[in-house]
Structure formats: C-alpha cells, structure tokens
Amino acid sequence: MMRLERNLAAEFEMKNPEDLKYFLAVEVARSSRGIFLSQRKYVLDLLKETGMLGCKPVDTPIVEKHYLGIYPDQKPVDKGMYQRLVGRLIYLSHTRPDIAYAVSVVSKFMHSPCVDHMAAVTRILAYLKSAPGKGVLYACHGHMRIEGFIDAD
C-alpha cells in the first residue's frame, strides 16, 4: 500500500487519506472494522430545508407496487424544486444504496413532475428521517479480494 501511495504522490498532489474526516458532504469514520461512509449531516440539512425534520418516519422508501407514471389528469408541481430535490437524493444514494431504487423511480419524472411524484419524493425523505446516519461500511478483512453480493430472483 505504501508503494502505491508513493507512486501516486509522484504524479499527483495528494493529502494523507488517513486524515480524511469529511469530504464533499461525506463523513468518513475509520475503525478496526473498516471505513464507514455516511452523509448524516447532509440528510439532516435536507430534512430541515424541506420542513421534514419533524415528520413521522416511514419504514420503506417507496410504496410497494407503486403506480407512478404520467397520466393526463395529473396536477403539476414546481419542476425546478422537484429537480433539485431529486438531484440531492441522487447524490445521497452513493452512500445510501437502500434508497437507490426509489430515487431511480422518481428521477424518471424530472421532465414533468406531478403531485404523486412529489409525494413519492416526500416519502423518501420520511424514510431518511428514520435513520439519517445509515451509510456504507467498507469492511477490513485483511485481504485484497473484492467481494460482492446480489439479491436477485
């Protein structure tokens, strides 16, 4: 690992990554278990800005068997506000893979969002309220093998 760091430092201006605690709204915590990445402050700021800090949390980020789509009789919402919110959720999904599916669903309606789509975004925010400090743990196993898991039918 030291050789890699030396080689990279020879080509690029670098800081010692062990000093890293917070970068681009990502909180970095190191322990003997590994490296934990979260965006707790980002989530709390997002909830505060949207007035959802005091909301009742929900257990899932999207309603099971949702029927979101584009229908002729839908009432539109502020497109700019919707796009900003969804954009922030897309950025958050880097450390919160549990919201990735729900965010991909609501991002399909960026061009013409309606009340139902905004309600789905609001539900994602209510889900985030249930555990704002969730994140991703890159566990230390003492080897350099890459492990991956999938849950597919």
Structure notes:
- By secondary structure, the chain is an alpha+beta fold.
- The protein has one domain.
- 38% of the residues lie in helices and 12% in strands.
- The protein has 5 helices and 4 strands; from the N terminus they run H-E-E-E-H-H-H-H-E.
- The protein has helices spanning 2-11, 40-49, 79-92, 100-107, 115-130, and strands at 22-23, 26-31, 34-38, 135-139.
- Strands 1-2-3-4 form a 4-stranded antiparallel beta sheet.
- Strand 2 (26-31) and strand 3 (34-38) form a beta hairpin.
- Helix 2 (40-49) crosses helix 5.
- It is elongated.
- The chain starts with a helix and ends in a 14-residue tail after the last strand.
- The model has no long low-confidence stretch (mean pLDDT 88).
Question: Could you provide a short overview of the structure?
Answer:
With 153 residues, the protein is an alpha+beta fold. It has helices spanning 2-11, 40-49, 79-92, 100-107, 115-130; strands spanning 22-23, 26-31, 34-38, 135-139. The chain contains five helices and four strands, in the order H-E-E-E-H-H-H-H-E.
